[in-house]
Design a protein that fits this description.
InterPro entries: GH, GH_1_N_CS, Glyco_hydro_1, Glyco_hydro_1_AS
Structural class: alpha/beta
Organism: Paenibacillus sophorae
CATH superfamily: Glycosidases
Active site: 372
Largest sheet: 8 strands, parallel, barrel
Strand order of the largest sheet: 1-2-3-4-5-7-13-14
Number of strands: 16
Number of domains: 1
CATH architecture: Alpha-Beta Barrel
Radius of gyration: 21 Å
Family: Belongs to the glycosyl hydrolase 1 family.
GO molecular function, one term: beta-glucosidase activity
């Protein structure tokens, strides 16, 4: 069974990693704008080091990023040249509501996204929009503590109503939160949470998670009233966890690790908190504050499809002595001796994508969408400025083969595939430009130097051929 003719081939970016123009057009300050590159980045991302404003001692890569804000027409034209059917992008919350609690939206910000969507539609490219992709207005962090406060649901609701009304005839596919489960790992980076000394951090995180789950359900409810044709999805940082050995303890550990992440989508897709999560809260002495109507809201407003990112599988052991770890997208995971690793230590596992697709489809029985997948690598231009990124082509080729097998041989319902960082952009985890994912090279280095000129890599024409053949020609 070949992929459907409507299969959404494309690429993915995030506002905070590509737009730049961080205070232009009346945009307000966002959490990502105060997250520096360099040695303090991870501490800030995790909410361990409080940084709520910029200083002169750090470099903040989001401020210019790759300047998509001024160059979107050039970039979208390149996406169209590759034949994109779909472009996944995110909205910068503070472009629309600069402080987050503003009564009226910022027209300049709304007009910018009108122009971006019009440019996409001009080429027949379907926008796939993430409402919030790791950004929270700093004003809301300072005044109410971000998602630890129930008030965030109201502000998010206002944002969604504004977006759905404004773009009801331009955007069909929406994602409520990017990688919602990353709240557990990067609480400030994903959700604007900063912790006080001696605070029960787990309780704060799961209360914030409840507020986001309620907000996601409210967004889904609003969307269906404004345009019943909208398709609303959730988004998971996905990857199956393997047991280190066949010891039952290892298998149990792998299952519980997966549940930590499935928990979010279980609520968004099934409409209720699973029993294993309720028992976990009991053990952790966490008592979620719910309002009347929350459970009914969650039950009645489940998502239409499940989207996820996939970069590599994870590995875990129940034995504390087995502790050789590698950094894999900021998830702690053991090194798998059967897998190769990227230059950043991420484990490359194409079959793991097929395994993850099957696990998610078996669990939810809803259409799936791969919205991030790619290889971060150092690209070195030759004397003519050309990049032969055969390593990237090989990575993507094997992952495409894997998801095609999941569709053809396993019967998984897959809507599309948008590679991560279709144009080079700032790395979310490291803040680097040198960790490149794109088919399009952007001339900029980790210190912010460069012309920002765009050029096509070898993978550009390869992906163009893949799309035109609907995934049949992978050579």
């Amino acid at each position: 069974m070949a992929l459907s003719k409507e299969f959404l081939w494309g690429g993915a970016t995030a506002a905070n990693q590509c737009e730049g123009g961080y205070l232009e057009g009346n945009k307000g300050l966002s959490t990502v704008d105060v997250i520096p590159a360099g040695k303090d980045r991870v501490s800030v991302l995790k909410g361990k080091m409080k940084m709520l404003e910029c200083d002169d001692e750090h470099f903040y890569p989001s401020h210019e990023a790759i300047d998509f804000y001024h160059r979107y027409k050039e970039d979208i034209a390149l996406f169209a040249e590759m034949g994109f059917k779909c472009f996944r992008l995110s909205m910068a919350w503070t472009r629309i509501f600069p402080h987050g609690d503003d009564t009226l939206p910022n027209e300049e910000g709304l007009k910018f996204y009108d122009d971006v969507f019009d440019e996409c539609l001009k080429y027949g490219i379907e926008p796939l929009v993430t409402i919030t992709h790791f950004d929270v207005p700093i004003h809301l962090v300072n005044t109410i503590g971000s998602w630890r406060s129930r008030k965030m649901v109201d502000y998010y609701e206002r944002l969604c109503e504004t977006l759905f009304t404004r773009y009801k005839d331009k955007v069909k596919y929406w994602l409520t939160f990017n990688e919602i489960n990353m709240l557990l790992h990067l609480p400030f980076g994903s959700s604007g949470l900063v912790f006080e000394e001696d605070e029960n951090e787990e309780a704060v995180k799961y209360q914030a998670a409840h507020h986001q789950l309620v907000a996601s359900a409210k967004a889904t409810e609003i969307a269906r009233k404004i345009n019943p044709e909208f398709k609303i999805g959730c988004m998971l940082a996905g990857a199956s966890t393997y047991p280190y050995t066949c010891a039952p303890e290892d298998i149990w550990r792998a299952m519980t690790r997966d549940r930590e992440h499935y928990f979010f989508v279980d609520v968004q897709s099934r409409g209720e908190y699973p029993n294993y999560a309720k028992k976990m809260f009991e053990r952790m002495n966490i008592h979620l504050k719910m309002e009347d109507g929350d459970e009914e809201l969650l039950k009645n407003n489940t998502v239409d499809f499940v989207s996820f990112s996939y970069y590599g599988s994870r590995l875990t052991s129940a034995d504390p002595a087995v502790n050789t770890q590698t950094a894999a997208n900021l998830f702690p995971t053991l090194r798998n001796p059967h897998l190769k690793r990227s230059e950043w230590g991420w484990q490359i596992d194409p079959l793991g994508l097929r395994i993850t697709l099957n696990a998610l489809y078996d669990r939810y029985q809803k259409p799936l969408l791969i919205v991030e997948n790619g290889l971060g690598a150092v690209d070195k231009p030759d004397e003519n400025g050309y990049i032969e990124d055969d390593y990237r082509i090989e990575y993507l080729r094997e992952h495409i083969r894997a998801f095609k097998a999941a569709v053809a041989e396993d019967g998984v319902e897959l809507l599309g595939y948008t590679t991560w960082g279709c144009i080079d952009l700032v790395s979310s985890s490291s803040g680097e430009m040198s960790k490149r994912y794109g088919f399009i090279y952007v001339d900029k280095d980790d210190q912010g130097n460069g012309t920002l000129n765009r050029s096509r890599k070898k993978s550009f024409n390869w992906y163009k051929k893949v799309i035109s053949s609907n995934g049949e020609d992978l050579d």
